[in-house]
Specification:
The chain is an all-beta fold. The chain is built from one helix and 26 strands. The chain is 2% helix and 54% strand. It has a four-stranded antiparallel β-sheet, with no helix packed on it. The chain binds beta-D-glucopyranose (BGC) (2 copies) and calcium ion.
């Protein structure tokens, strides 16, 4: 058994740090600060961070095969020109819901961008219920809505054989699964995979590892848990020095390191003084398990 080490690699103090994506070609970690309205890219070698601000809350940003990124910002999907630090609208959703915004998103193995929405929060996890939906931006730029009645649309990833979509609506306290059709991008047969225990907090961002197990960041739980989706059991818990752990992805050499984002929003001064690293990005090494490369939007 290797020894597990947790270090804060980016002292970002993000309001809601989220959506980490490893970019192998540059050795960089891309992530967002949702309510801080910022996209950042941290270079693991130089330790430099490059940022751009967004006009609205930015739920997720993903690499694009043709270059640059695509983001789910406010209630639009938009192309991001990282050199120029500009964006162009691709498609809009929920014109009838001015109080909604995009939250977490991820690209499927065929290059489709999935992202879900939620109502704006009054305070963390307190919001109008069932206002959100899950969408796909297809490579031809059409948008498909899969379902509504979502509280806080969050973690997404696909099984290694691409036949299952794993999904989190945070206020359900569950990791769920759907049968996935990789040919069409459609989903069916929703079911429970894992119900979080009381002290585990809210399930938030999620990623799959090279053994097909799920890593779930637990908001207000100060931990990342590893779930076996076949048995619906927890295999491992990694604790972090901050409570508001929000999302995770594998990166680094051979995808051996787990990067974990965190938030400060909702913490008062005394709380923040106790957790000075809140809002930072953490790197967990020595897990003895690898991740898989992220997918890029193919449109
Ligand atoms: C959302 C936050 C929310 C948190 C906990 C995050 O994905 O962006 O606004 O408080 O999940 O569910
Ligand atoms: C749709 C409704 C849906 C609601 C919740 C609206 O944009 O028109 O059918 O129930 O979103 O997501
Ligand atoms: Ca999230």
């Amino acid at each position: 058994m290797s020894s597990i080490k947790v270090e804060c690699v980016v002292k970002a103090s993000s309001s809601i740090g989220e959506g980490p994506v490893w970019e192998e070609k540059d050795g960089t970690l891309l992530f967002v600060d949702i309510s801080g309205q910022r996209i950042s890219r941290w270079n693991a070698e130089t330790k430099q961070t490059e940022s751009m601000t967004t006009e609205k809350f930015v739920g997720a940003v993903v690499p694009r095969r043709s270059g640059g990124y695509v983001m789910a910002e406010g209630t639009r999907f938009a192309a991001v020109d990282w050199e120029k630090k500009t964006s162009t609208t691709i498609a809009c959703v929920e014109a009838d819901k001015p109080n909604n915004r995009f939250n977490d998103g991820k690209v499927d193995p065929a290059g489709r961008f999935f992202a879900g929405t939620m109502a704006m929060e009054v305070q963390p996890t307190v919001l109008a219920r069932k206002e959100g939906s899950l969408y796909t931006l297809h490579p031809d730029h059409t948008v498909v809505k899969h379902f509504d009645q979502v509280d806080i649309s969050n973690g997404l990833d696909w099984s290694l054989d691409h036949r299952i979509l794993y999904y989190i609506d945070s206020l359900s306290f569950m990791v769920e699964a759907f049968d996935y059709d990789i040919q069409t991008g459609s989903i069916c047969n929703r079911r429970k995979v894992y119900l979080l225990e009381k002290d585990e907090g809210f399930p938030d961002g999620m990623c799959i590892d090279a053994e097909g197990k799920l890593w779930v960041a637990c908001y207000d739980g100060g931990r990342v848990i590893r779930i076996d989706p076949q048995t619906g059991t927890r295999m491992q818990t990694v604790t972090l020095p901050v409570d508001k752990t929000t999302s995770c992805c594998f990166g680094g050499r051979d995808y051996c390191d787990l990067y974990v984002t965190s938030a400060t929003q909702g913490m008062d001064q005394a709380y923040r003084a106790k957790q000075p690293l809140a809002g930072g990005v953490f790197r967990v090494t020595g897990l003895g398990v690898k991740g898989i490369p992220p997918n890029a939007f193919s449109g």
